[in-house]
Specification:
- The protein is mainly α and 135 residues long.
- 76% of the residues lie in helices and 0% in strands.
- The protein is elongated, with a radius of gyration of 24 Å.
- It starts with a helix and ends in a 16-residue tail after the last helix.
Length: 135
């Protein structure tokens, strides 16, 4: 379900921004961004060095090296931005909390409604017509 995925992303983002302690919160965001950066660098090297490999043949159409470079540049920008303006990122947590709470309520209502619908017998088992005609 798309809402539960969004809810998980919001929760994960909040955990990364807040970090496990109040001391040096910026470290955890930078660590997450640096891990992504390392994965991009390794992927780029793998694509360069394995011209004839099975990986390259299977994924050549899926991975555009130009796009990979653009994503890396954007990630470098985010790392730089986080170093300079982390305090602005902390305010995002305040904006995300009402959204997370609203999604949680919506998801709970959805699950309750889904369970009610699943308990209903299929229409083929209902002997009466759904709408009765009045003469």
């Amino acid at each position: 379900m798309e809402q539960s995925l969004t809810l998980n992303v919001i929760s994960d983002l909040k955990m990364i921004i807040e970090g496990p302690s109040r001391a040096n919160r910026k470290f955890y965001v930078l660590a997450a961004l640096s891990d992504l950066n390392s994965l991009l660098v390794m992927t780029s090297k793998l694509l360069k060095t394995s011209e004839r490999s099975e990986f390259n043949q299977q994924s050549e159409s899926d991975v555009d090296r130009g796009k990979l470079k653009l994503v890396k540049k954007k990630l470098d920008y985010y790392i730089s931005w986080c170093n300079d303006r982390y305090h602005e990122l902390e305010t995002v947590i305040l904006d995300l909390e009402p959204i997370r709470e609203s999604l949680t309520v919506d998801l709970t209502i959805f699950e309750e409604q889904r369970q009610i619908i699943e308990r209903c017998p299929p229409r083929s088992l209902i002997s009466k017509p759904t709408i009765e005609e009045i003469n």
